[in-house]
Amino acid sequence: MRRRISLLAAVLLCLTALLAACGGTKDADTVVKDLDKVVNSLDSYHGKGTMTLNTGQQPLEYQVDVQYQKPNYYRIELTNAKRDITQIVLRNDEGVFVLTPRLNKVFRFQSDWPQNQGQVYLYQTLVSSILQDNSRQFAVDKENYVFDVMANYQNGSLARQKIWLDKDYRPLQVEVSDTNSAVMVSVKFNEFDFDSKPDKSVFDTKQNLSGSSKPSTAQPEDGDKAAEGNNADQATGNTPADSGNADDTEGSASGNAAGEEPAEDTMAPVEGEATPDTAADNGEQALKDNLAAALDPLYLGPEPMALQDSNDIVFGGLPGVMDRYSGATYDFTLIKTQPRDMAASSMGEGQMVDLVYTVGELIGDEESPQRTIVWTYDGIQYRLTSGTLPETELVRIAQSVQGEMTK
Questions:
Q1: Which stretches are tagged as biased composition: Polar residues (predicted)?
Q2: Which domains does the chain have, with CATH numbers?
């Protein structure tokens, strides 16, 4: 009798193994091995979805469009429809760029991104977090695979993430939680195509600056002047890594918007027509209005800090606003300026940092505790500096500058 039971158990075990081999439910080890093969054989992919940030008072949604082409071409488009803001992160043969097409603005970085860091919407980042976490948790949800793993992002408050994959290992959803298990960032993919074979023009900087934030897959024709003027002047006023050499050599707010001399001193201006003086006043007022609408941090550090003062300043030849925050232990300064030459490109020498809704640059050296994060969003350049805050906290504060104003 016992032999029959043992034989029956052995048969059932064999049948279970056979069913699994023939397409039944896979275990964690099998899925992990498959993912390793998939990510190492990737030629290209194209994903679209919605990213929600819960780091402020109200959730903020961004439309995400990410494309990859082997070996190291990336294009990430982040759009905040509510604010009508689109930013693009590119990696191509020329380097790593952050673009704001609507403003014809480019920042160029010296970086090996995303090898040294990744974003929640990059497939390689998600798979890497699964492969590297030996304490990963695995579950099967209908026909989908769910991994619960450690989060490895520059925001130290992000502790874990859950990743949903379909049976073909395409990402469906990602939830990144803090130490209190509250979901801070989520991404839901509504499209994801392996082997998408994008044209190289998709990763071309000029193509992405030319009128549309979604470049055509067709090769640009000869003589394309879509981005003409981008290299006209390498303005020193917009360099993220430059703390004080931002001489405003162009568009110096002389007020002559059209760049023409008035015809005669005796010619009376037409009623309602802007004179050079009124144009200057209007230009300066527009700058002040834009700076007044600039965003403030929603997170103010690990201990209570408050705004101590806010002053109009001139920084690197540019009008700006300097806000100083302080508390019992920590303090930081946030400078906001609006570069006049929006077509100039800049090069940073610091480390790229992921702010989720955009990319910034971390500046500092080992000999000094002072750290600065510089980034541009909707035409405003932000410069966050502290000599007391840990780097992870400084990144977290910068990431929170994307909601409604706190003042």
A1: 204-219, 231-242
A2: 28-194 (2.50.20.10), 291-399 (3.30.200.100)
